[in-house]
Amino acid sequence: MSFPSLSPAPVSPAAPTQAELLDFVRRASADAELIASLPLDPEGRTWVRLAGPGGSEAWLIGWPPGTGTGWHDHAGSVGAFVTAAGELKENALAARLPTDGWKTLELSDGVDREHRLTAGKGRAFGRHHVHEVLNESPDHHAVSVHAYYPPLPQIRRYSRSGQTSCLEQVERPRDWQ
Q1: Which one of 28, 32, 114, 149 has the minimum C-beta count within 10 Å?
Q2: pLDDT digits (tens, 9 = 90+) for 116-168
Q3: pLDDT digits (tens, 9 = 90+) for 89-102
Q4: What is d(CA 100, CA 118) in angstroms, rounded to the nearest whole number?
Q5: Per the domain annotation, does 28 fall within a domain?
Q6: 24-44 as b/e: b if 16+ CB within 10 A
Q7: 163 part of a folded domain
Q8: Considering its fold, how many domains does the chain have in total?
């Protein structure tokens, strides 16, 4: 199956900024042909890699009802994502977790943030942003576009129990490509 190719923004000699990544995912999420090209699976998330601006890693992702990512970060990459169809919920931490030297961490009260992202809405984020993304709809798929720079070196996955966060797994690109 072939997929439409959204032209990345013009490449600048510098790394793409969060604003440039957000601009790219907004443009991609508004491309009706691109969004319609994503095969949707009722059982699990689907994804297609896109050419992002300035050498960034970009993905078009389909979210069946009731699916989510679990808590994770994108290591040292900055990123952005926009909901193209449906609605996604992002739970995020308004605190930076240490990157190394811990397995279990007690979070302070008041660090949790919730964002509801309907079609056309999105967010940019900095390095070490910890969040989970969910499609809480009981009966509708959601579709989103994501971009990261530098391309994801790893993803750290966490579990949460109340205010306790535990590092559970570290994934490398070979695990998801």
Answers
A1: 114
A2: 999 999 999 999 899 999 999 999 999 999 999 999 999 999 999 999 999 99
A3: 999 998 888 878 88
A4: 34
A5: yes
A6: bbbbbbeeeebbeebeeeeee
A7: no
A8: 1
